[in-house]
Amino acid sequence: LALDGSNWQKIDLFDFQTDIEGPVVEYMSQRCGGFLKDLSLRGCQSITDMALQTFAQQCRNIECLILSKCMEITDLTCDSLGKYSSHLKKLDLASCPKITDLSLKYLG
């Protein structure tokens, strides 16, 4: 059951492991695809735009995405989310120093 991505609609890695890197997020995106609706990567400081661009393309049904304290993400992540994540209702970008006002344009 754990390997079946349809069983994973909500994943919170903050309480589990915050030192994950991009390939883990990309793999998770491929496995969970359209089933994942809620993901918290809070404090995962190694996550980059590349992993989240793949995530946005694969997980188009995401509704809640917590990226607070993800220090490496930039406006490119928000550009991808704006293009592919039409179901997104909640996005937390608190304490993401590389996110600028341009992200509002991408998400608008």
Characteristics of this structure?
single chain, 108 residues, alpha/beta, Leucine-rich repeat, LRR (right-handed beta-alpha superhelix), 4-stranded parallel beta sheet, 34% helix, globular, F-box_LRR-repeat
| Adjacency order of strands in the biggest sheet | 1-2-3-4
Please state the overall shape, judged from the principal axes of the Cα atoms.
globular
pLDDT averaged over residues = 89
- The level of helicity is 25-40%
CATH fold descriptor? Leucine-rich repeat, LRR (right-handed beta-alpha superhelix)
The description of the largest β-sheet is: 4 strands, parallel
Unreliable stretches (pLDDT < 50, length at least 5) are none
Gyration radius, rounded: 13 Å
The assigned CATH architecture is Alpha-Beta Horseshoe
Count of discrete structural domains? 1
Would you mind describing this structure in some detail?
With 108 residues, the protein is α/β, with parallel strands linked by helices. It has a single domain, classed as Ribonuclease Inhibitor (Leucine-rich repeat, LRR (right-handed beta-alpha superhelix), Alpha-Beta Horseshoe), CATH 3.80.10. The chain is built from four helices and four strands. The protein has a four-stranded parallel β-sheet, with no helix packed on it. Helix 1 runs parallel beside helix 2 and helix 2 runs parallel beside helix 3. The longest helix is centred in the N-terminal third of the chain and has 11 residues. The radius of gyration is 13 Å and the shape is globular. The mean pLDDT is 89.
